Amino acid sequence: MSHLVPSNKIYMSSSLIEGAGRGVFACVDIFCGEIIEECPVVDLSQDDFSSLKETLLVNYYFLWGETYDQVSVALGFGSLYNHSYSPNAQYIKRFDKQLIEFVALRDIKKNDEILVNYNGNPDDTSKLWMKDIRT
Prior knowledge:
The protein is mainly beta. The protein has a single domain (10-116), classed as SET domain (Beta-clip-like, Beta Complex). 5% of the residues lie in helices and 35% in strands. The protein has one helix and nine strands; from the N terminus they run βββαββββββ. The chain has one helix spanning 46-52, and strands spanning 10-14, 22-26, 35-44, 61-64, 70-74, 82-83, 89-94, 99-104, 113-116. The strands form two sheets. The protein has a five-stranded antiparallel beta sheet with strand order 4-5-3-8-7. The longest helix is centred in the middle third of the chain and has 7 residues, at 46-52. The protein starts with 9 loop residues before the first strand and ends in a 19-residue tail after the last strand. The model has no long low-confidence stretch (mean pLDDT 87).
């Protein structure tokens, strides 16, 4: 395993999206294609996932594994990025490294909120499982 250090490119603050709570923002200009953050993940057992479904954390997990039959929680700010159908970043699951990379899809200015499409594919406009997403 290589060394993984926290990103110095981002900070957490109140989201600009109504009702979204916290969000992740750029503390420096970030350029298209640049890795924003690498987040290690914690794999959950089926028992843990069943318990998770009864908590607020049910909105903070990622489907995981080559066949998406597992779930994981991202550490760092990985589970705090908000959704947009017009994202400025995307997440890439690195199963072999047990981490999720967040990568800029276009240039992101300092203090802009960093948004990803929760569907995984930045162009996927399928309806989400969450009913209070507005962007």
